[in-house]
Amino acid sequence: MVKKKKKKGKRSYIPVRMNLMFFVIFILFSLLILRLGMVQIVFGQDYLREVQRTTDVTVSNSVPRGKIFEANGNAVVDNAPVNAITYTRTPKTKQEDMIKVAKNLAKLIKQPITKITEREQKDYWIIKYPNLADKKLTAKEKKDYEKKKDGDAKLYQMKLDRITKADLSMLTDDDKEVLAIYREMIGGYNLTPQIIKNENVTNEEFAQVSAHLKDLPGVDITTDWNRIYPFGDTLKTILGKISDRDSGLPLEEADAYVAKGYNRNERVGTSYIEKQYEDVLQGQKEKIKNITDKSGSVVSTEVIQKGRRGDDLVLSIDMELQKRIEKIIGDELLKSKQQPGHQLLDRVFVNMLNPYTGEIKAMAGKRYKLDNGKPVLEDFALGNITSSYAMGSAVKGATVLTGYKTGAISPGEQIVDEPLHIKGTPTKASYVRGGMGRINDLTALKRSSNVYMFKTAIAIGHGHYVPKAPLDLRSNTFDILRTSFRQFGLGTRTGIDLPGEQVGFKGQDTTNPGFILDYAIGQYDTFTPLQLAQYMSTIANGGYRMQTHLVKEIRQPVEASDRLGPIVEEIQPKVLNKLDMKPEWINRVKEGFREVAQEPGGTGHSTFYSTKYSSEPTTYKPAVKTGTAQGPYAGDNPNYSHQTLTWNLTMAGYAPYDHPEVAFSVVVPWAYQEDAYNQGINYSIAKKVMDAYFDLKKEREEKGMNQSTSVQKVQNIKDVKKGQEEARKENEDGKPSGNGQ
């Protein structure tokens, strides 16, 4: 009986375990069904959207830059259309896909291989010969580095370091051509067209690629542009440069440009006008929205902003005048170099401004160089703002006006021109041996008296001259003179719309009376040629220092046309400061400048007295101031030290004297000493460039052309026009009183 009971208990235990197992399975299946229900019913739409998810990727395509025109509407910087072949890769494009396309493309075009580097050849060698590259590493090296954080990078660098010249010789010219194409493919961003070739693309290459586009995924044909210069090298140093596609954005400014929406391989202005007006010239980029699926494939493309060529610039430069002036200074420079004593002379500068607006009509500079023993003249217009020189007596107008303002002298005051013997200072005198005797301010300007200026500076510094005794001047005399000179534009920036303008070099601050007297005749601090022109313009227009500028208008582009579009912005004249001086003082100095050119005894009289138009004083009635300054040589001729003394020859002026329409400066550094006394190259250049200006004006008038002057465009300060009209009226009523000599 006991045994039967045990069997019965065992049979009842098995169904319990099976029931428990079935129950667990039931629960698990219930959870699985519940989870599937949640996925399908609750989150089904979310997962479906994830599968169907797309991404919007917007890319910008560059457009041609704006053009640059001169004052008469002729293009000085233009765009030439060129055939171009591009490649656009997607996020899912693989390396082997690009290499395959590069190989196929290499069969259709000739790609220059000069730009590929040794490093790029090594990278390509590793791609082409992976097994040989792998053998450059030992098993131990692979094991040691495979688990390190930067192990792959270090192993790759080991491969690069161990590739020999013999290895690279395995790459054929065909391989290098493929590499040259491939390097361009990987240079840009995903979905952004990258230029593969845009130089010397033949019509045959263009047609062949066009016919095989279906076999070249990512490749396309388009039209690109290159900058061209219809006037050759004229003004090229101030027009500036743009980067190429290889260099792209300047490294030091790349982040700032990228923040503005530029691509890193985009062409931008890197110097001068091209850089200064980059925002204007760059234009409105074409923006394209690419919609990609989860795998990175482009499913649709939409243009969301049409591109537009950059706005055009119109310069105030008159290119016909510019060319004539450049020929004049080039001929004069070459002629002088053929004469003895001019071994250091190697540059000449000329500026012409509208004195009422600051518009630059011409900015010329030439530099003499030897190229394989042959003389060459290169454009150095940029030197008008980036180089500076002692200007000599041309600045004496500022000295006289400073004397009036400080009460050191009064208009018409007579001073004895005599050699000055100051203890501890070399004898200081005018060029007339023994002195000019008793002269007034007008004669001092006309005959370019140094001593009149010396004694004016002594009075400004509250000094008292006693022959052979020390001369004490107030410690602030330099500050008084420099502050006053800066009002004219001497020793301060002219405000020109170009980067890199220099202010010149300021001599050491000192109470040494000899140096202070040198400053008064323009032989201590240095000034730029453009500053000299602005100084003369300030006197010519009655005392308003106008900001100089090269760009006078910004205009909308006219597509597929050389015409000028509507004005976007007209650059208004800007007054930087007004001379704190009486109009009659300014007019008296202007009379002195007139006498320099038009009265017997004036240092410029024999140069300007007659022209081909008349035996009377020149019909354009100039007012000028001549200048010479002795100083140390500062050029790069290795045969002469910077202790070598030489001469800077200058002249500045305006015309007509009673209603100025043009102001000018001529600067000839490091000339022959005899030229300082014999009316040398600065005189002949000044006369010829002024003749050129008025000749051109007459020619245009005879053809019925109206040469525009912008005298009435000063609008930003209310009293400017009134003050200038008053100054003109005083000139027209009669010249200021004075006894001349």
TrEMBL record:
Compositionally biased spans, kind Polar residues: 705-715
GO biological process terms held by the UniProt record: cell wall organization; peptidoglycan biosynthetic process; regulation of cell shape
Annotated ranges, domain Penicillin-binding protein transpeptidase: 350-691
Membrane-protein topology: Single-pass membrane protein
Record's catalysed reaction(s): Preferential cleavage: (Ac)2-L-Lys-D-Ala-|-D-Ala. Also transpeptidation of peptidyl-alanyl moieties that are N-acyl substituents of D-alanine
Region (Disordered): 701-741
Location in the cell: Cell membrane; Membrane
Protein name in UniProt: serine-type D-Ala-D-Ala carboxypeptidase
Phylogenetic classification of the source organism: Bacteria, Bacillati, Bacillota, Bacilli, Bacillales
